[in-house]
Design goal:
The protein is α/β, with parallel strands linked by helices and about 850 residues long. It has 5 domains: about 130 residues, no CATH class; about 80 residues, no CATH class; about 80 residues, Threonyl-tRNA Synthetase, Chain A, domain 2, CATH 3.30.980; about 290 residues, P-loop containing nucleotide triphosphate hydrolases (Rossmann fold), CATH 3.40.50.300; about 80 residues, Arc Repressor Mutant, subunit A. Helix content is about 50%, strand content about 10%. The protein has a 10-stranded mixed β-sheet with strand order 8-7-17-16-15-9-14-13-10-12. The protein has a 4-stranded antiparallel β-sheet with strand order 3-4-6-5. It has a two-stranded antiparallel ribbon with strand order 1-2. The longest helix has about 35 residues. The structure holds adenosine-5'-triphosphate. Adenosine-5'-triphosphate binds next to helix 20. Pfam families: FtsK_4TM, FtsK_alpha, FtsK_gamma, FtsK_SpoIIIE.
Length: about 850
């Protein structure tokens, strides 16, 4: 605590303790005597001054006090003459001024002005009253009045017994002793004082000179003893060095808090030496402390304890050896990382440039304009209408969004919410507007919301939301920007957390724009190595423009020509393939002891997973189905099953689904599908039944279209204005990406197991066997792993050829049948048996 603070605190505390220190509360006699002493001191002072100037004349008049004819030359007249003569000439010379000063001090003390420390001042004064006249006597040799008679006589006496030199030695010894005692001028103390000049060395100096600190602490004690109430000062004095004990640990405590009470236990505390007091528990001393200062004292006490430990025990410090818990793999990976750095999944397309914001069209001013007339009109209509139905309102508030204005009303006490809810159609009729939605009550707000479409909605452009800080700085795994909320805030969600999205909306209501907005936001945030799309577009028009980014972002089946699937029959294969990919990923995650794709990829980047064992960097896969109803109509259960399976399981392995439909009827969006799509986005739908199918509540049928949407995140429904991205803008983005260097092909999905007999392995034909068949057989047997991807790696083959070889190995009986995510069983146990087997095949 800074010194000034301490002083301030001290003063405040003192004042608090001595309320009568205030002048107003001084008793009259006190004031009288206080002022009287000061007055006398002034008389003395003036008399002495005047006497010194005219002492020869004054001296002659000293005895003529009552003679009127004799005029005095002293300022204070004959009294002044007498005083000067008595105190200066006949007594102590100029030291008489000290008497005047002491009178003054007594006056101030009576008035409770603590300008002086009384005992200290009296001590100093007495010393000089004795010493100064003798000294001046020795200097003036009795000439003049400076030494007074006393001074001269004593000087003369001393000179006669100890000689001149002895006299001077006594005088010098007296003054030196005085300075040593009063100002602590011992050599060690001088060093200490010098040390104090340097703040940094304070602690060190204090440690070196504990006795000096004791001295200071005693001084403080003295002060406190003077200041404290009698009842408090007694135990303090009794406790002897106890407060000193606290001093090195905390010099502040007694200084700051004069109100100290010491319990009787204190007397039993022994203080054998200067440092041992630090070990005494502060519990025996109760101090009036503020919480902050108590903390300071506590800190000081703690440090004291440490000191004690240092004093009495051998304090050994051992630095714990770093426990080497890294197993072999970790060590190896650490070495690899040291050598090659972390695995960089972006390295293949290291120069890939993310799309620039300029590719998106600037639609100009998107500031929300406030139409006061419209607001007022709507407000009056709502209030009037509710009044007609006897619904009183105590408060109404409007929040203007891009498409709708939310009027929040607080109904009068006693009005039932259901009564207002019932009026939805009446309000819509009255406001003659489509898209009125009543939210009763507003979740967490205690109001009822009425959403009224604005006459001139503000468009939310993709450019404005993509360029927002919220999107740019987002650290979501798969950030999807939908648009803006009713209160004009940008709304984003993480597809990886959704984890699958069901979208519905009648034709022409903004569903395709919505899908484009989602895809665009992902393209703006994710590198091609981190994200792959599987696109299913039965309408054949909506997603085709994304074919340009096939070699960057799209995934397809090994033998598929186009990455964008338009044939519903092929969709089944793709979905099954995704299921295989999902199972494979689960296997990889299991082997890597990871729970999520994020953990797995991190481990892979840290080179803790060996690619030789099939490990690879796993990009997120997003399956986009633009018209799900079409699929269900044509493929039915065959599609529903893998979709449901993916929706149930694929989240942890980074496969996410976005399924959109125009017809959200229950036979399209079955219970099984719905249950696994917690996130739903509804554009305007035809009927409230459709709305219930998609959102489990009405409302989507009340939307106004053009991107006006409701988003359900599993908890609440949020009304949004979807960001608008036009087809030419998407074209520009895909062209920009497509023009850059991409991978050699689209991301190849695993071949899907098929029930189609034409696809079965069939009988083994030795004449049609692949050139690498035997080599592959040896690899499979030696590793005892019937894995196509392993063959791919070891023989550096494409997936198709490796798959064909695996089929041949199966047909020949070397490996077992397809086993889902697991590797096929190897039927031959060692290489020599294999050689015999191959020989037999040739024959
Ligand atoms: N977010 C939006 N902001 C402004 N206008 C929009 C928005 N979304 C859609 N629109 C308007 O609505 C029109 C139809 O949108 P969109 O093509 O997305 O409908 P859709 O539901 O996909 O229709 P369909 O199912 O027939 O393809 C767009 O051309 C555009 O004019």
């Amino acid at each position: 605590m800074p010194e000034t603070d301490i002083m301030e605190k001290k003063t405040t505390t003192k004042q608090a303790q001595n309320p009568d220190s205030n002048n107003k509360t001084l008793s009259k006699p006190r004031i009288f005597f206080g002022l009287l002493f000061i007055f006398i001191a002034i008389i003395f002072f003036l008399s002495f001054i005047s006497y010194l100037l005219n002492w020869k004349a004054d001296q002659s008049q000293a005895g003529t006090m009552l003679e009127k004819s004799v005029k005095s030359s002293n300022l204070i007249g004959k009294v002044g003459d007498w005083l000067g003569n008595f105190f200066i000439f006949e007594s102590i010379g100029v030291a008489a001024f000290i008497v005047a000063f002491l009178l003054f001090m007594v006056g101030t003390l009576i008035l409770k002005k603590k300008y002086f420390k009384p005992w200290k001042t009296i001590g100093h004064s007495l010393f000089f009253i004795c010493w100064l006249p003798i000294f001046l006597g020795a200097v003036t040799k009795g000439e003049g009045v400076l030494s007074g008679v006393y001074g001269f006589q004593v000087m003369d006496f001393l000179k006669s017994i100890i000689g001149v030199i002895g006299l001077w030695l006594v005088l010098a010894a007296g003054i030196i002793l005085y300075f040593i005692l009063e100002f602590n001028l011992r050599p060690s103390a001088v060093r200490h004082r010098l040390g104090e000049l340097n703040e940094n060395t304070i602690g060190r100096v204090k440690n070196m000179l504990p006795s000096n600190e004791k001295f200071e602490a005693d001084e403080e004690l003295e002060e406190i003893a003077n200041d404290a109430e009698p009842s408090q000062s007694k135990p303090l004095q009794e406790s002897g060095k106890q407060p000193t004990a606290a001093q090195p640990a905390d010099n502040i405590a007694p200084k700051e808090f004069p109100k100290v009470t010491v319990s009787s236990e204190i007397e039993t505390i022994s203080t054998p030496n200067k440092t041992s007091f630090e070990t005494e528990e502060p519990k025996s001393v109760s101090l009036d402390l503020s919480p902050a200062d108590a903390a300071a004292v506590a800190t000081a006490t703690t440090s004291s304890k440490n000191l004690k430990t240092e004093d009495h025990f051998d304090f050994k410090v051992e630095v714990a050896q770093e426990v080497d818990e890294l197993d072999e793999i970790d060590k190896k990976s650490a070495d690899l990382v040291k050598e090659h750095g972390l695995y960089d999944h972006k390295l293949d397309l290291a120069n890939f440039q993310m799309p620039k914001i300029e590719l998106l069209k600037d639609y100009g001013n998107e500031e929300i304009s406030i139409n006061k007339e419209e607001l007022e009109e709507n407000k009056n209509r709502i209030v009037g209408l509710l009044k007609n139905f006897n619904v009183g309102i105590s408060e109404i508030k409007a929040t203007i969004g891009p498409t709708v204005t939310l009027y929040e009303i607080v109904p009068e006490a006693g009005i039932r919410v259901a009564a207002i809810k019932k009026l939805q159609d009446d309000i819509a009729l009255n406001l003659s507007a489509l898209g009125i939605r009543i939210i009763a009550p507003m979740p967490g707000k205690g109001t009822i919301g009425i959403e009224v479409p604005r006459k001139t909605p503000t468009m939310v452009s993709m450019r404005s939301v993509i360029s927002s800080q919220k999107f740019q700085n987002s650290d979501m795994d798969l950030p999807v920007i939908f648009g803006k909320t009713i209160s004009n805030e940008i709304f984003m969600a993480d597809l990886a957390k959704m984890p699958h999205l069901l979208m519905a909306g009648a034709t022409g209501q903004g569903k395709s724009v919505g899908i484009n907005a989602i895809l665009t936001s992902l393209l703006y945030k994710k590198h091609p190595s981190e994200l792959k799309f599987v696109m299913v577009d039965p309408k054949k028009v909506e997603l085709t423009l994304y074919s340009k980014i096939e070699r960057h972002y799209l995934a397809k089946l090994p033998d598929a020509e186009d990455a964008i699937i338009t044939d519903t029959h092929k969709v089944i294969n793709t979905l099954n393939s995704l299921c295989v990919e999902m199972d494979t990923r689960y296997e990889l995650l299991k082997n890597a002891f990871c729970r999520t794709i994020k953990e797995y990829n991190k481990k892979f980047s840290e080179r803790k997973l060996n690619p030789e064992n099939g490990h690879r960097y796993l990009p997120y896969i997003v399956l986009v189905v633009d018209e799900f109803a079409d699929l269900i109509m044509t493929a039915g259960k065959e599609v529903e099953h893998p979709i449901a399976r993916l929706a149930q399981l694929a989240r942890a392995v980074g496969i996410h689904l976005i399924v959109a439909t125009q017809r959200p009827s229950v036979n399209v969006i079955t219970g099984m599908i719905k249950a696994n799509f917690p996130a739903r986005a509804a554009f305007r739908v035809i009927s409230s039944v459709d709305s219930r199918t998609i959102l489990d509540s009405p409302g989507a049928d009340q939307l106004i279209g053009k991107g006006d949407m409701l988003y359900f995140n599993g908890n609440e429904i949020i009304r949004l204005q979807c960001a608008f991205v036009d087809t030419p803008e998407v074209e520009k983005i895909v062209e920009y990406i497509g023009a850059q260097k991409g991978y050699s092909s689209a991301f190849i999905l695993p071949e899907a197991p098929s029930d189609d007999p034409s696809n079965s392995v069939g009988a083994f034909d030795p004449n049609e066997k692949d050139a690498l068949f035997e080599e592959a057989a040896r690899i499979v047997v030696s590793t005892q792993q019937g894995s196509t991807s392993m063959l791919q790696r070891q023989l550096k083959l494409g997936y198709n050829r490796a798959g064909r070889i695996m089929d041949q190995l199966e047909a020949s009986g070397i490996v077992g049948g397809f086993n889902g995510a697991k590797a096929r069983e190897v039927m031959i146990s060692d290489l020599s048996s294999l050689e015999d087997f191959l020989q037999n095949l040739k024959n």
